[in-house]
Write the structure tokens for this entry.
Amino acid sequence: MSLKDDKQQNIQMELDFSSALTGEARGAAGEETESLMATSGPESPARTNRLMEEVCERENLKKALRQVKGNKGSAGVDGITVNQLTDYLKQHWPGIREQLLRGTYKPKPVRRVEIPKPDGGVRKLGIPTVLDRFIQQAVMQVLQRQWDSTFSDHSYGFRPGRSAHQAVAQAQQYIAAGYGWVIDLDLEKFFDRVNHDKLMGQLAKRVEDKRLLKLIRAFLNAGVMENGLVSPSVEGTPQGGPLSPLLSNLVLDELDRELERRGHRYLRYADDCNIYVRSQRAGQRVMESITRFITYQLKLKVNETKSAVARPQERKFLGFSFSAGPEVKRTIAPKALERFKHRIREVTRRAKGVSMATTIAELAPYLRGWSSYFGFCETPDELMYLTRWVRLRLRAAMWRQWKTPRRRRAALLSLGVRPRLANNTAGSGRGPWYLARAKALSVGLSNAYFKSLGLPTLIDGC
């Protein structure tokens, strides 16, 4: 399917769903749809005891549907895919909406998946069904509109108009101002340890609508399906649902207020929190007192192995670190560089049996995304080095593909390399990584050649 056809299909799906919302799509449930719509009207209630009506408001639902479809993702325990969601809603939405408005909707268990962490171990994600993701997204949009302005200016994660880059830039300003020690806090299994009763208590202070509170409690207690068995959820907010990031900000807003009350220079991105102080002694004191607050007040646990009081240059924050000296610059953290090289090696090792164009097509989205994020660093030489290193990996991969001296000579000649240079290089007994730097490959597999195949660079002019 072409991009144009796919876009047209998405537009038609939205129109079909909109028809279901307005009662124009009759079917067997047409009368029920009309009666339900008659109770809601076009308004968006502002009072917190009428939030469920706002969740079910047409424009909010259409926006939620677009977001869930845009995020894609795999199916939940019921096997329904994102592409099937609109048709499912056309058939079942009137009944689902009635359950939401009456406070009787019951989410399905989440599907447990394990994602390998870059530094070892696994991250457990809970994948809700696409219907539950759609409802969570609709709830999140309403609550975020109400709550976001009340959150701390020091909180940057999962908030509209805020980004990881802003958090990193603020950290840089603290360091440049003389706050040369950082308390780097890591909350151990944060999303798995959130206390449900404490979270619901915080929600009840902001939300009067008992139906919405009951729905959120139901999402928290929906359980986890693993290997066909459902286990109850007694704590935590499963990573993988649209509502979890907002709930995490609500839980940690209490930490933000405490740090503000104490006058600390700090910033937080989800469960990553850095506090900046002027001395190591002050850092140790703050680490001890804040750890006690997190343990006893928030009922969470600080990971002592991963947390530390250190110089900022020795730590990473959101993939970045900082240079030492009078001019503080943003640098790419060593672990982020290792992960980048590991990913490129994985792709180029698989290049033996496929064309260079295919390999570059696989690399290009990753390189563009990586450049978009880490291009925020202030070390252009590093980006130039990595761009050249990627090309060397590709030249070495192509050299392995050619295999024999005869094929190598013919390939080099076809790429415009002079016969004598092609002969000498093709007959060399050196390894692929050494010959990737040879003049013949630089000429034949030039920068312009890779550019013509769509290989992005990590920095302009390289």
